[in-house]
Design goal:
Helix content: over 70%
Largest sheet: none
Strand content: under 5%
Order of helices and strands: HHHHHHH
CATH class: Mainly Alpha
Number of helices: 7
Radius of gyration: 16 Å
Oligomer: single chain
Shape: globular
Number of domains: 1
Length: 175
């Protein structure tokens, strides 16, 4: 029971961290740390807790956004996309040896940043195009504007990878 409470507390901290880090970056179009934070929660706590952290963290970011809350279908797509990032972190995290740094680690983290941003934006952009149409034109515009998120997410995952290694050593959660 104690380990479940510990995991729940850490998941809540990571979800709150998603919201808190979103606030200073709200002026930078499509740049956010949320996907990396959810991925980190998944690596540290497991796929289920990572998914839940993504769902709750993105709900906080979408609903309490200072620029206005997202529409419910878009918010749901954002929550599922961030949840996927946490799930992916939990799935990959068990197989990611972090004894020492190597180029392979950084390439893998860049690939994880690419995959999480692509999945997130495919979900969000398809729902956005469906809502606001015309579908194909709106989808193309959305995917082009998502390049900012994709590039920034790859950079964030690669640059912050050493922090993930340190956190993995600090957090002593046993699944």
């Amino acid at each position: 029971m104690r380990s479940d409470l510990y995991a729940m507390a850490l998941a809540a901290i990571f979800a709150a961290l998603c919201y808190v880090t979103m606030l200073p970056l709200v002026g930078f179009y499509n740049v956010f740390l949320t996907l990396f934070i959810c991925f980190t929660a998944g690596v540290l706590l497991g796929a289920g807790w990572g998914f839940l952290t993504g769902i709750i963290g993105m709900f906080l970011c979408s609903y309490f956004n200072p620029l206005g809350a997202a529409l419910p279908p878009i918010m749901l797509a954002q929550m599922i996309g961030a949840g996927f990032s946490g799930w992916l972190g939990g799935t990959v995290g068990r197989r990611l040896p972090m004894r020492q740094y190597s180029v392979i680690h950084f390439v893998l983290m860049g690939a994880m940043g690419l995959v999480t941003a692509l999945v997130y934006h495919l979900l969000v952009d398809v729902i956005d195009a469906w809502l606001w149409g015309p579908f194909w034109v709106r989808l193309q515009i959305g995917l082009i504007s998502s390049l900012v998120t994709i590039v920034s997410n790859v950079i964030i995952f690669v640059v912050l990878f050493p922090m993930l290694k340190v956190l993995r050593g600090v957090v002593q959660y046993r699944r």
